[in-house]
Structure formats: C-alpha cells, structure tokens
Amino acid sequence: MLTFVGLGLYDERSVTVAGRDAIRDADRVFAEFYTSRLVGTDLEALEEYHDTTIEVRDRAGVERDPGPVLDAAETDDVVFLTAGDTMVSTTHTDLRLRAEERGIETRVVHGTTAQTAAGSLTGLQNYRFGKATTLPFEQAHGGDGVPDSVVATIEDNRSRDLHTLVYLDIKVDDPHWDDSDDTYMTADHAAGLLAEEFPETLGVVVARAGSPDPAVVADTLPELATRTFGDPLHLLVIPGDLHPMEEDALDAIAGLP
C-alpha cells in the first residue's frame, strides 16, 4: 500500500487527523520537500511530532529513481509526504501511476492547498479563480522579466473576468533542509516583475498562509513592489473585476486603496 499524505501549509500541526493516523500506522515514511515547503517547521520537528523516521527523497530520487519507494510499498504500508495537498504536483501523480502499474494499492489523504487558502484569506470568491500560473526566477527560464506564458495566463483570465493565482518560485537545493541553500521569491519581487507588464494593476499579496500570522495586502503592483511582507511563503493574486462583496472584503482585510 502506498498512501500519499498532504501535510498542509505551514508546520507539523497542519496535517489532518486522517493524515496523522496514516503516518502513525505506516511501516515506512518517505517525503519530498522540493516542490513546496513547510516553512514553520523542519525535518527533526516533523519526525518528533509524528514519532517516526522520515526518509527524504530529492527530485532525482522521486522522478528518476522511485524504485526504493515502490519496492517498499509492494510489501509494507508506506506513506509518501508532501507539503500542501499531495496531488497538486504532477510529480506525485506520476509516482502514483507507477505504483498502480505495479499492482500497488494507493490512496490519498488530502491537505490544505495554497489556492483554497488564498481565496479564504482574501475574501475573493473561489469559483472566480481561473488558471493558475507560476512566476519563475529570471535566471530559471533563461530570459529577462516575465515569461510570455505567465503574461498570457493573466491576460486570458482578466479577459474572462477571472482572478489569477500566481505561485512564486522556490529553489530548494538541499533535500535535508539546509536553509542556506533555499531561495524563495518574495511578493515584492514578483510585483515588480509583473508591474512592467501590468502597470497600475491591482494585486493582492498573501504571505504565510496557514501560519498564526498570515499577511494579506492589496494595492497596485508598483506599490506592492516597494513593500516587504516578512517571512515566506508568499503568493500573489491578480484579481479580475471585483464583485462588491469581494471589494468589501479586500477593503476590510487587505487595506484595499
């Protein structure tokens, strides 16, 4: 059996009760933290909270060499942990399909997602979000500024009066959570990049969703680019035209100018 467990958004306590039960009952526990991170905790605290040993796999160990995970799941109850909701990344879907091809039973224990948290924290209506996109670091896509695909996604959503959730790039080079090797794109940096393509456009920053001190700030992209929003993780939402209730929510929650 291979059970995928989403750990939620922030720290070791963000997991659901069902997820904690699955971890408790597992013979072996694997994890990856390169697609996203729980910035409110570390590996040691996770292991202590769940009273287990967690075997962390890097990108190559999940995507190119998943054999140890699948071999274990053929004979034991194995849990595979990720931040957020475990099936948001196609990497995890691929691993699940490989397991099914080998006749390994799989199941999913969901965790809270950044997308649902962004809607909840901002007051923007969930059904009005269009296609999401990820804004990469400039050096990651080999060019300057914002990739055409990101611009096209935002423009298409705005043309249909939909909000765009912009995930911000993270670079995690050490699977064992060496903070010196981690780089997180900040919302002010992202706003500065997007302001070149969408001047005077409204943006909404969501910082540290799922933590005890999340921040939600609404302003034009050029203004957001001049501010700081504290510790990661950050998200950025580019809204479509606001419903009156959404406008009231952003005014009350995010200081809508």
Question: If you had to describe this structure to a student in words, what would you say it looks like?
Answer:
The chain is an alpha/beta fold and 257 residues long. The N and C termini lie far apart (52 Å). The strands form three sheets. The protein has a five-stranded parallel β-sheet with strand order 3-2-4-1-5, with helices on both faces. Strands 6-7-12-10-11 form a five-stranded mixed β-sheet, sandwiched between helices. A two-stranded antiparallel sheet has the order 8-9. It has two domains: 2-109, 3-Layer(aba) Sandwich (Cobalt-precorrin-4 Transmethylase, domain 1); 114-254, 2-Layer Sandwich (Methyltransferase, Cobalt-precorrin-4 Transmethylase, Domain 2), CATH 3.30.950.10. It is built from ten helices and twelve strands. The longest helix has 12 residues, at 90-101. Homodimer.
Summarize the structure.
The chain has helices at residues 17-25, 43-50, 59-63, 67-75, 90-101, 114-122, 148-159, 187-197, 221-224, 244-254, and strands at 2-6, 28-31, 54-56, 78-82, 106-109, 133-135, 164-168, 170-172, 182-184, 202-207, 215-220, 234-238.
Question: Taking Cα atoms only, what radius of gyration do you get, to the nearest Å?
Answer: 19 Å
Taking the alpha carbons of the first and last residues, their distance comes to 52 Å
Rounded mean pLDDT is 93
Total domain units? 2
CATH-scheme architecture of the largest domain: 2-Layer Sandwich
Helices, strands, pairings?
Elements: E1 2-6, H1 17-25, E2 28-31, H2 43-50, E3 54-56, H3 59-63, H4 67-75, E4 78-82, H5 90-101, E5 106-109, H6 114-122, E6 133-135, H7 148-159, E7 164-168, E8 170-172, E9 182-184, H8 187-197, E10 202-207, E11 215-220, H9 221-224, E12 234-238, H10 244-254
Parallel strand pairs: 1-4, 1-5, 2-3, 2-4, 6-7
Antiparallel strand pairs: 7-12, 8-9, 10-11, 10-12
Subunit structure: Homodimer.
Family: Belongs to the diphthine synthase family.
GO biological process, one term: methylation
